[in-house]
């Protein structure tokens, strides 16, 4: 049967199809077609194999804006015995809306029409411009000409109440199954869902008519937060492969965070069971936000009254330097001022465990490795959080095992913080 077995991840080929004019204006080598999913087990089974075909290609295309779909299954040979042959199209059709195109010419006409008629659903909440690369120093190229080649990315906020969005969501939700491990479709009958969708916005050559191209999206679920606010939980987050490794995931996360900050009714942003890659993205952006927040940093490290000493009361800071006045002690300690930390956590609307981790990383940035008192205070602060977080496991261990496990976890956490902070310095 090996000759008649296909890997469903390799067989399924995805394309975000642009109009001919838009495709011709792309930079050399740039393409948004012929990429593959990471997972297909929700569709074709845990072993991600399809039986009964040779040279199988599942051609699934989307118009780049409206995500209207075209599906075509091709193969060189098919087994005659129907009992061992998988129904490739029928199986996939259960996961996409009915009415998809099977006629390539008709789909091509839809692509051309879609290019100028599709507009994003919902309310524009965030915009980001990525300057176009200019060879050399750009001599001879006017500012207006360079600006015309800049790429604009826009984020739109929607709910189930947004006209037409429910149908649009049924097209884009397939990407959750294909790119998020253990991802699943959400229940349309649950009202509290909110969505943020990221698009690339391009001007057509020789025209002011914008075209919009789907990049990725995130879904958010609203919970009650005592006494009179709500908590938003980030549930799903996906950027499609042709747009990855360009910083667009960070832009989408920033859009979500700024949206949360702008809503007085929202108490905080939480994340549901984040993957490791998303945790890194979140840590990086949260740390950059904190480091650029002047008031937070001033209070965290303290304001210096002399040229001597270390910043923030860590190490020799907080004591008088030779010939200088004492430095104002910062709130980070260590240990950090818990009341101050909680005040800032609420103001910045960051979930408790995440903000505690950020505080620990901020402290580590300027922790004097030669100051035994500061190192001990920092170690106790981190271990206290770890003990509380892992209490149900640790409480069943004897004292020495518990201490050993805490120390092992502490060292692992410090190593991970060093890795994250290393990325920030790059």
From TrEMBL:
The keyword DNA repair applies. GO terms for molecular function: histone acetyltransferase activity; histone binding. Gene3D superfamilies: 1.10.10.390, 3.40.630.30, Histone acetyl transferase 1 (HAT1), N-terminal domain (3.90.360.10). CDD domains: NAT_SF. Its main location: cytoplasm. It is found in: Cytoplasm; Nucleus. GO terms for cellular component: chromosome, telomeric region; cytoplasm; nucleus. The active site is at 272 (proton donor/acceptor). This is Histone acetyltransferase type B catalytic subunit. The keyword Cell membrane does not apply. Component of the HAT-B complex composed of at least HAT1 and HAT2. The HAT-B complex binds to histone H4 tail. Residues 46-48, 221-223 are annotated as: Interaction with histone H4 N-terminus. It comes from the Eukaryota. It catalyses: L-lysyl-[protein] + acetyl-CoA = N(6)-acetyl-L-lysyl-[protein] + CoA + H(+). Belongs to the HAT1 family. GO terms for biological process: DNA repair; subtelomeric heterochromatin formation. Residues 4-181 form the Histone acetyl transferase HAT1 N-terminal domain. It comes from Macrolepiota fuliginosa MF-IS2. The lineage of its organism: Eukaryota, Fungi, Dikarya, Basidiomycota, Agaricomycotina. The record marks 193 as: Interaction with histone H4 N-terminus. Keywords: Acyltransferase, Cytoplasm, DNA damage, DNA repair, Nucleus, Transferase. Catalytic component of the histone acetylase B (HAT-B) complex. Has intrinsic substrate specificity that modifies lysine in recognition sequence GXGKXG. Involved in DNA double-strand break repair. It is an enzyme of class 2 (transferase). Its EC number is 2.3.1.48.
